[in-house]
Amino acid sequence: MAEGAVLPETAGVYWRPRVDARRLQAVGRLWTATTVVHTVPWLVMSALLLYLEPLSFPLALILIAHAWIIPELYAKRGANVLRPVQRMDDGAERTALGLLGDLVGHEARALHAKTGLVIEGGGLGAWLVGEVGAVLFRPGGRRVHCYCVGVEDPELPSADRVAHLLLALREDEAGFATVANQAFSGAPWRLRRRLPARARPAVRTAVAVARVEP
Amino acid sequence: MSKLIRMDKTGHTTLAEWTTDDQVSVDAAVTAFREQLDQGYYAIVTHGEGHAEQVRELPLDAGTVILRRPIAGG
Fold first, then answer.
1. In this complex, which of B7, B50, B54 lies closest to A120 when CB atoms are compared?
2. Which residue of A has its CA nearest to B6?
């Protein structure tokens, strides 16, 4: 990442505090607290209902389902940032793929061919970059931050979409995370199970990279 | 030979090629570069894996200058 450089797009979100490691930690804790608030009260209520009146089990089951569904919906929203979008014509896709291939190393190129996602190491952790967003795997590999971000040109080939995000990320990693809208934060396994099968190996790779990186 | 390329719907388009000892090609590249910046593109020079820098003047010694659109939170 370029040191001292500021992504020009951050001017459009001047009210947002610039993302850094401390802020990511605080945001992560907030997401954990939100998940607890969305889960624990419903589970407690269902247990209380069953204790007071065992015949109320249908209602208790509904409460348990509610406690399960809300965190799942959040995780699904996080997984959506790595979803592929509609492909353009083959010629443009091939040309764009050639450029993207020139920007990354052999291993990242191989991972992209397999999963459609590019892995990129950064100061904040390991990134998986897709067409409409990116996921940051924090050092240690126990938490992800999912960001919805993209380029507003519906005619761009998919590899060019990835290349746009990759170049912006390389210019200014913190600025990139500041411009992007956060969609989810939580454990990598919550994200992985909501991803299409093709993309899952990329999560395993990113977790492994995040565990190794200091 | 240095290149100025723009990521677009064709994959990418080479807008200009230049060598520092050919002033005509340099002038054409600088003109094309400024036109693209005026249209809202950002110019990026990559410095190997993991490093990229935004430039506001055409770096004549760069191998490839890539033009990208702005990104935004979705």
1. B50
2. A160
Q: Which two tokens stand for residue A174?
A: 């913190």
Classified as helix, coil or strand, B2 is: strand
Q: In chain B, how many H helices and how many E strands?
A: 1, 6
In chain B, what residues touch A119 (CB-CB under 8 Å)?
A: none
**Do B70 and A8 make contact, defined as CB atoms within 8 angstroms?**
yes
Q: Quick one: DSSP state of residue A4?
A: T
Cβ contact B9–A151 (<8 Å) = no
Q: What six digits make up the tokens of B11?
A: 């994959």
Q: Does A9 touch chain B (CB under 8 A)?
A: yes
pLDDT tens by residue, B52-64? 999 999 999 999 9
Q: Which two tokens stand for residue B59?
A: 């770096």
Please choose, from the candidates A15, A14, A20, A16, the residue with its C-alpha nearest in 3D space to the C-alpha of residue A1.
A20
Which of A5, A88, A151 lies at the smallest CB-CB distance from B71? A151
**In B17-42, which positions are buried (b, 16+ CB within 10 angstroms) versus exposed (e)?**
ebeeeeeebbebbbebbeebbeeebb
* Cβ–Cβ below 8 Å for B7 and A160: yes
Q: Kindly report, residue by residue over A41-95, the tens digit of the pLDDT.
A: 999 999 999 999 999 999 999 999 999 999 999 999 999 999 988 777 788 999 9
**Is the overall model pTM greater than 0.95, yes or no?**
no
Using a 10 angstrom Cβ sphere, with 0-12 exposed, 13-18 middle and 19 or more buried, the burial of residue A13 is middle
Are the C-beta atoms of A102 and A144 separated by less than 8 Å?
A: no
> Mind telling me how many Å the CA of A214 is from chain B's nearest CA?
16
